[in-house]
Amino acid sequence: MAERPTTSWRHGITEEAEELAAGTLGPECACMAALFPEELLEATDAVLDAFEGDLLGLGEAGDEQVFAVVERVVLALNAVNDANNGSAFETGEREELCDYIDEALTEHGVDVVALTARHGLGRYQLTDKWRKW
């Protein structure tokens, strides 16, 4: 199953806290908790919960239905980003979120390469129409 980006972000926060406690990382180098406050993680997980619910039975869906699911998750992530002053998701996080969306769709029977090709898009342009983050 595709791993949510929030899982790895939480893991990074935990690792960093352990390194700080052990004295192997100086406080001036710690950034994970500031980059990923709990409110951001919870809001992102709520969006991904809804997305995962939308994925059920999607393998048999037509292109319009698949794109509608992608649009909903992207617009909801836009809202999370906006609520965090437009800086919730930096380049690395954007890539992780897009990869997660792609992997989750694929796991639920959507051929992302064929879907995007049918609409004149490259595979990694799946979210571009709606994405502001």
Give a brief description:
With 133 residues, this protein is an all-alpha fold. The protein is 64% helix and 0% strand.
Defining traits:
133 residues, mainly alpha, 6 helices
Q: What pattern of helices and strands is seen along the backbone?
A: HHHHHH
Poorly predicted runs are: none
State the end-to-end distance: 24 Å
Count of helical regions = 6
Biggest sheet record: none
Structural class computed from helices and strand pairing: mainly alpha
- The helix content, as a percent range, equals 55-70%
Strand content: under 5%
Shape: elongated
Cα Rg: 17 Å
Give the rounded overall mean pLDDT: 96
Tally of DSSP β-strands? 0
